[in-house]
Write a structure and sequence with these properties.
The protein is α/β, with parallel strands linked by helices. It is built from 14 helices and 19 strands. Helix 7 links the parallel strand 8 and strand 9. The protein starts with a strand and ends with a helix.
Length: 384
């Protein structure tokens, strides 16, 4: 069965003045990646890129090579993280703007609005001097700002490479739980699309498949033990806001199921206060629990994850997935495809997290350890 694999893409790998100011001249994610240390026997750190090296996304040849590797993997297109903080403020926009302006690479794309505040823990926790220091706050400034946001991206929306579902432009929103004005935003953009001759937007909400809370109809969260039997309430909440679909992320669900709800929650508390040396997860056991029953819904698009290891960013405060390999990733993808079997071809979508999140240890690009292993694994399963 042919799946539509959309790979999330981080445009962070180039210096910007803000990161120079916050972290030091020339800082990029490679700074964290290169200085990571192994925390236990057999822990693969630092992670070293192979084919592309420690690249700079301002270089067009790098972007062409990334697209070539993604085609090799059977990926349909990149979903670029996009940072708009309100009042016209963007960060990390240069690589995507150059992709649009140059017409290269000739590879499909869409956008995920990564609408979250940057704190001193966004790219690097170890050197955080103030626990809750805000570097760049995510703001929602109303209709005029939503309109400016739209026109900033209009050239991309008109690009023939822009990906669609049911003839409409894919636009993913990273955090809908803190975006109280999201209905207004979507309404404004649908009207602007019509005014500018566009086919309209296909809005997708990124949603965890479990939370330590319930959500009422007003969007207010109430503390509760995670519901590991059903994700229907969470998905239905997103759809009730007017989203066309949900991109489900089963990380917490898989971790809770792999170790047991209460042990996992206890470890999470210890991690928060730096009292746990490290809490690792078996990759195969964990990703087996990633998919909720409702991930079979026609308008729910699950997430697949090749690896997970955020120690380059956050030290030992987050669990490392151990035992990941190309073969085990292939099993994970096969399992994910079973949730797409009864759908229209247009809706057989999997989100791949991620193409190049090197400091989070979830990437597909070749490294010195596995080479093209993950790329070949994905392609082989899609072609089966």
């Amino acid at each position: 069965m042919k799946a539509r694999v959309i790979a999330l893409y981080l445009p962070q790998f180039h210096p910007i003045p803000e990161n120079d100011e916050w972290w030091g001249k020339g800082f990029t994610e490679w700074t964290n990646v290169g200085r990571a240390k192994p925390l236990f026997r057999g822990h693969y750190q630092p992670k070293v890129p192979a084919d592309l090296g420690y690249y700079d996304l301002r270089v067009p040849e790098v972007r062409e090579q990334q697209a070539a590797l993604a085609r090799e993997a059977g990926v349909e297109g990149f979903c670029y993280y996009h940072y708009w903080f309100g009042k016209g403020k963007q960060l990390l926009e240069r690589p995507f703007n150059e992709v649009v302006a140059s017409g290269k690479p000739d590879f499909p794309f869409c956008i995920c609005w990564a609408n979250h505040t940057w704190s001193n823990k966004t790219w690097e926790q170890s050197s955080a001097r103030v626990k809750t220091s805000v570097l760049m706050e995510q703001c929602y400034e109303g209709v005029d700002d939503y309109t400016e946001h739209f026109y900033t991206l209009l050239d991309a929306f008109k690009d023939r490479r822009y990906m669609t579902v049911d003839g409409k432009l894919i636009f993913v929103i990273y955090d809908i739980l803190t975006f109280s004005d999201v209905k207004t935003f979507m309404s404004v953009w649908q009207n602007l699309a019509k005014e500018n001759g566009l086919p309209g937007f296909y809005f997708i909400a990124m949603m965890p498949s479990t939370l330590s809370a319930t959500i009422d109809s007003s969007g207010k969260q109430h503390r509760a033990l995670p519901n590991l039997k059903s994700s229907a309430d969470l998905y239905n909440y997103a759809l009730s806001l007017g989203f066309d679909a949900v991109n489900s992320f089963g990380k917490r669900r898989g971790e809770l199921l792999s170790k047991g709800k209460y042990l996992n929650l206890t470890e999470a508390v210890l991690n928060k206060f730096g009292l746990n040396k490290h809490s690792n997860y078996n990759y195969s056991k964990t990703v087996k629990g990633y998919f909720a029953p409702e991930d079979k819904w026609e308008n729910v698009y699950p997430t697949i994850l090749p690896q997970w290891d955020r120690t380059a960013r956050v030290g030992n405060s987050d669990g490392v997935y151990v035992g990941s390999s190309p073969d085990k990733f292939a099993e994970h993808v096969r399992h994910a495809l079973t949730f797409l079997e009864d759908r229209e071809p247009e809706h057989r979508i999997l989100f791949l997290k991620s193409w190049n999140e090197w400091a989070e240890g979830n990437y597909m690009e070749p490294d010195l350890k596995d080479g093209h292993g993950y790329i070949n694994a994905l392609r082989s399963v899609i072609d089966e």
